[in-house]
TrEMBL record:
Keywords: ATP-binding, Cell membrane, Membrane, Nucleotide-binding, Nucleotidyltransferase, Transferase, Transmembrane, Transmembrane helix. It is an enzyme of class 2 (transferase). One of its GO terms (molecular function) is diadenylate cyclase activity. Catalyzes the condensation of 2 ATP molecules into cyclic di-AMP (c-di-AMP), a second messenger used to regulate differing processes in different bacteria. Signal peptide: none annotated. It comes from the Bacteria. One of its GO terms (biological process) is cAMP biosynthetic process. It catalyses: 2 ATP = 3',3'-c-di-AMP + 2 diphosphate. The gene is dacA. Residues 95-260 form the DAC domain. The chain crosses the membrane at residues 23-45, 52-70. Pfam families: CdaA_N (PF19293), DAC (PF02457). Belongs to the adenylate cyclase family. DacA/CdaA subfamily. This is Diadenylate cyclase. It comes from Pseudobutyrivibrio xylanivorans DSM 14809.
Amino acid sequence: MVDFVNAVDAFIDDYFNVNIPDVSITDVIEVFIIAYFMYHLLVWVKNSRVWMLIRGVLIIMLFFLVAAVFQMNTILWLGEKLVSVAVTVLIVVFQPELRRALEQIGRRKITSLFTWNILKTGAKKFDDSTIVGLVTACYEMGAVKTGALIVVEKDMQLTEFERTGIGIDAVVSRQLLINIFEKNTPLHDGAVIVRGDRVVSATCYLPLSDNMALSKDLGTRHRAAVGISEVSDSLTIVVSEETGTVSYAREGRIVRDVKEDELIAELKRLQNPEEAVEAFTKTEKEGK
């Protein structure tokens, strides 16, 4: 390795008359270590609510940049004072996520720390069979007025909510979902979290939305669906126990009483935004 680096250095020096600093084996190892930890840090940020915070911080920074360009001195003075307490505020707000990340590092084996594994994330695409299973189960439960709450992950992992329930780790199917939400069964109360093609947890507790603009007709199940959509990029399907209607919540808003093809289209957009929804609907009709 050293001979190769020296040869490259000599080639650049001879042909381009440019001197580059000496690179040792220690420098190469140091770069790989930094890259490894930066990679896992970015994965953790992407799969947690920290990413949403970073986007908010970038918007605020852009706001202060505009203030600097136009010499808005009062705003710049306020921004300077806020920076001094911003780090402390971030630590307090995201204390649970930071503690959980350190706990996960402590639980891992030493050998696994030096293995470059691609972590599984909520970005995994699910199959069309999963969409069919979800939609079929929801409308069958709606026909008999069985309440259901199903959270389908997108990019952000819902690990903190997954831990509030009971782990399942089973392939998504119509029969499984109907059995979970059957009345008077141990798993029917709470939400189911779907990651990729698998149900990972049931009886999960979700945060309730405190949005005062929501209709007073909405019960706890619907408010929980909106609540989880406010803190994540997931899609939550709700089956009403009172009316049997199917709704979905996403990005802090709820769409009530949707038809089967509408729910299929929304799940298809979640599965792969680049694909045309019409192609999937056409394939399903041809299959029937």
